[in-house]
Design brief:
The chain is α+β, with helices and mostly antiparallel strands and 359 residues long. It has two domains: 262 residues, TIM Barrel (Alpha-Beta Barrel), CATH 3.20.20; 92 residues, Immunoglobulin-like (Sandwich). Helices cover 18% and strands 36% of the residues. It is built from seven helices and 21 strands. The strands form three sheets. Strands 1, 2, 3, 4, 12, 13, 14, 15, 16, 17, 18, 19, 20 and 21 form a 14-stranded mixed sheet that branches. A five-stranded mixed sheet has the order 5-6-7-8-9. It is globular. 44% of the residues are buried.
């Protein structure tokens, strides 16, 4: 049995470049129905704010802190790394991403490459619209990739002034999915035999956009918490104890028992991806011997276009269905995409983490 918890793990406060402090952000997350959040200010690990926010009558949300680390002396300031589960400031290692990753690993933490293929918005002069992708792909042993970053993908929906202004006031109509380059990199790494955990986040700043005389807060925290989130499938429920639940969240994330959900086209709670064979049963993040064949089972909360991806290729798909099965006989990583139509466009709805088959 799995216990599903929904959270967002890329959030900023005025300690770096956000607009709201932790209590207000926790309330926005609680109102959005999230179970946990991880606040990740730039190059500062904020302490003394972790805990459960809310009340027994109105439900709680668990707030944890991590850090988004990058080298401030580098222009442009590329190579942003999300660091979780380390109770120590490490931004002094930002100038060498591999040393930073290795240090986090020795401290049993987790590292995720943030918005890896971020793009410029060329017609806006603003710190939030400068491209800050990951460029040092020679690094290794990182935990995973931020497959879908809402703010980064929103920039892709702003190719010019007209479409950009429309998107600012109707963002739910313009965001359709992560950059294709992210999928290609993820599949490249998985095909090479690496275990790479995928997450999805808001990158919430409470941003105001200023274009000429116009100022508009389109990216309020509560709106973003209803967009792209990461769902964890924990083996035990939250206990209400801060230390135990922090350990549970990061252990579940490290194991890859997670999927990414875009909540605008529809609630993604309840998605499941399992594999069964003569050597046992596996869920997302697990490794299973393929033997003579493994039956994969996918269930979505509503009808969608479901695809099973292996080594970058679709090996099974169906449209307008909420269930799909496939018998896998080849080793490697298998992941699932579910796409759903919303406001006249086909949109990425659910992205699973892989199940890994071995001989």
């Amino acid at each position: 049995m799995s216990y599903e918890y929904v959270g967002n793990m890329h959030i900023h406060t005025p300690y770096s470049d956000g607009t709201d402090y932790h209590a207000l952000i926790a309330e926005a997350a609680r109102q959005a129905g999230l179970d946990f959040i991880v606040v990740t200010d730039h190059n500062v690990l904020v302490k003394g704010v972790e805990g459960y926010y809310g009340s027994e009558e109105d439900r709680y949300v668990l707030l944890l802190t991590g850090e988004e680390i990058h080298d401030r002396t580098r222009l442009p300031q590329v190579n942003h790394l999300l660091v979780y589960g380390v109770d120590e400031e490490l931004c002094h290692l930002a100038d060498d991403p591999q040393v930073l990753i290795d240090t986090v690993n020795t401290k049993k933490g987790l590292t995720f490459i943030a918005h890896p293929y971020d793009q410029d918005v060329v017609w806006v002069s603003d710190d939030f619209t400068i491209a800050i992708p990951w460029v040092d792909w020679q690094v290794n042993n990182f935990t995973g990739l931020e497959i879908w970053n809402y703010m980064s993908s929103f920039k892709d929906a702003m190719p010019n002034v007209r479409e950009g202004m429309q998107a600012l006031f109707r963002p739910d109509e313009f965001v359709t999915g992560p950059p294709t380059e992210v999928f290609a990199k993820w599949d490249e790494l998985l095909t090479a035999g690496q275990k790479v955990i995928g997450i999805g986040n808001s990158d919430a700043h409470g941003t105001y956009f200023h274009v000429g005389p116009f100022s508009h807060r389109v990216f309020a925290y509560d709106f973003l918490f209803n967009c792209i989130n990461t769902h964890l499938l924990c083996k035990v429920p939250f206990s209400g104890n801060l230390d135990l639940d922090r350990q549970l969240i990061f252990a579940t994330l490290k194991a890859g028992r997670a999927f990414i959900g875009y909540e605008i086209p529809g609630d993604t709670r309840g998605f499941r991806f399992l594999a069964q064979g003569s050597y046992g049963t596996a869920e997302m993040g697990d490794t299973l011997r393929v033997g003579s064949g493994v039956t994969m089972q996918i269930r979505t909360p509503a009808r969608a276009h479901i695809k099973i991806i292996h080594e970058g290729k679709v090996v099974r798909e169906d449209v307008n269905t909420d269930a799909l099965t496939y018998t896998a006989t080849e080793r490697g990583a298998y992941r699932v995409e579910a796409w759903k139509e919303y406001a006249g466009k086909d949109r990425c709805w659910i992205l699973s983490n892989p199940i890994y088959l071995i001989r």
